[in-house]
């Protein structure tokens, strides 16, 4: 009964455009997502948290940039960085350093940077810009917490880590968790990007894209709402061709640090009072450093 109407709807130019963008985003991003999940699970299970304690300087002001740069050793999405940051706090790492690690890990690790290079083959500067803006934001938030943060607003995490379950069970438990979260949000993000590309009138996006300030704010807000995994967001950003490189950089920097699912994870791990203060400050700094870095490097 509905075969002909459905076939006709799927054959329309809008539906064809939607399916093309959706499939392209998912197929391009999926290998990086799977690789990141496997590597993240291996590090979360087999690398003891005490390793990071020994590797960081004792002074918090020096530990913050070191922890931010150490984010490169956690090839995973923001879903993986939150429990690892919680484990660092439980092991006695300065909260400022753990928070810098939490913000930088999803954005400066090699899997994410490689995915960014693949998504932007004609703009190699986007990789460097993403690394610089993300690291600056992570370090600035770490130092800001060191200066202004209060211990009573950071509830120490108490739930056990994957490593407590032992070997293979812990590894596959971590893999299942990250695949469930990251894979689902990848599909949601690809759906939103395809819908934005196929259905939203071009004049609406052009009105925002043509304004240098508004375009950055629009894509920053979009990154918060879409909650795309950091291993897949570069392909979504690359599909938003009507926006400037700086606006797309803001999308890439904000997404791994401030989005709806990350806010929920932070609130569940460190407490709601912490998340309600930490997320807005991170968003403001991420937009600021994205605009400054984009103006210099892009």
From TrEMBL:
Keyword Nuclease (UniProt): no
Topology in the lipid bilayer: Multi-pass membrane protein
Domain of life: Bacteria
Keyword tags: Cell membrane, Membrane, Transmembrane, Transmembrane helix
Annotated localization: Cell membrane
Cross-referenced Pfam families: ArsP_1 (PF03773)
GO CC terms, sorted: plasma membrane
Subcellular location, principal: membrane
Annotated transmembrane regions: 21-47, 96-120, 126-145, 182-200, 212-237, 249-268, 274-297
Family: Belongs to the UPF0718 family.
Protein name, as recorded: Permease
Species of origin: Streptomyces calvus
